[in-house]
Specification:
With 228 residues, the protein is of the alpha/beta class. The chain has a single domain (2-212), classed as Hexapeptide repeat proteins (UDP N-Acetylglucosamine Acyltransferase, domain 1, 3 Solenoid). 21% of the residues lie in helices and 27% in strands. The chain contains two helices and 20 strands. It has helices at 2-31, 196-212; strands at residues 35-36, 41-43, 47-50, 55-58, 63-65, 80-83, 88-91, 96-98, 101-104, 107-110, 115-116, 121-123, 140-142, 147-148, 153-154, 159-160, 165-166, 171-172, 180-183, 188-192. The strands form three sheets. The protein has an eight-stranded mixed β-sheet. Strands 1-4-7-10-13-16 form a six-stranded parallel β-sheet, with helices on one face. Strand 19 (180-183) and strand 20 (188-192) form a beta hairpin. 42% of the residues are buried. The model is unreliable at 195-228 (pLDDT under 50).
Length: 228
């Protein structure tokens, strides 16, 4: 009985924090000039920065987990989405992020139902434009239903095809085709995914995973929408 009462208090407190975080983050996103779709949820404060010539556009029903305990696998930093110079960030619908950093100097584009595991990094530039050793930014494009595992880094010029899974800790430096499993540093394809039925099931799983970010699991906890 005591455990049930305590669990109810804990879940209720978490829900209130999430509602407050969502309200505050939506205001901050609007002040930063971010185009934020309907139904997005926030846990903790997400950082949005957009230069006067840059742009950030987020689709509908996305989930952002920035608080340290908002994801049971551990979030080491808040989500940070920054568009520098003329950089553009474009995110599709029903995507999930846990401590994800996206930095755009040119273009970073994510499709629908992309799941970014804890502490992932996606960037199209070298971050030191004044250094002669730095190259020009190159666009990053990530397709629909892609899963990025914990601590994945996606570097400039990379395209990842639809339905691909990137293993935890990978550093993606070159294009990865659709419907495969890839891992390593540097990241390489290690397996192909199955036929149309399996791919359809994976897409459905990605969608339901994002939905779980807004709903309770069987033990009453909020589940993570962004960890493969």
């Amino acid at each position: 009985m005591i455990h049930r009462i305590w669990n109810g208090i804990r879940i209720g407190t978490r829900t209130v924090r999430q509602l407050l975080s969502t309200r505050i983050n939506r205001i901050l996103a609007w002040l930063a000039g971010v185009e934020l779709g309907r139904g997005s949820l926030f846990y903790g404060r997400t950082t949005f920065f957009r230069s006067s010539s840059g742009g950030i556009r987020i689709g509908h029903s996305c989930t952002f987990k920035s608080a340290a305990r908002s994801n049971f696998i551990g979030v080491n930093r808040p989500c940070m989405f920054t568009a520098h110079g003329t950089g553009q960030i474009r995110v599709g619908d029903r995507c999930g992020f846990s401590g994800t950093v996206i930095g755009a100097f040119s273009l970073v584009e994510l499709g629908d139902r992309v799941r970014c595991g804890a502490n992932t990094l996606i960037t199209d530039g070298d971050w030191h434009g004044s250094d002669s050793r730095s190259g020009d930014p190159r666009p990053v494009k990530i397709g629909n239903d892609v899963w990025l595992g914990v601590n994945v880094t996606v570097l400039k010029g990379v395209t990842i095809g639809d339905g691909t899974v990137i293993g935890a800790g990978s550093v993606v430096t070159k294009d990865i085709p659709a419907n495969c499993v890839a891992a390593g540093n540097p990241c390489r394809v290690i397996a192909q995914r199955g036929g149309a039925s399996e791919q359809s099931g994976a897409a459905s799983g990605a969608t339901s995973g994002v939905e779980l970010g807004a709903n309770s699991s069987s033990d009453g906890e909020k589940t993570d929408a962004s960890t493969p």
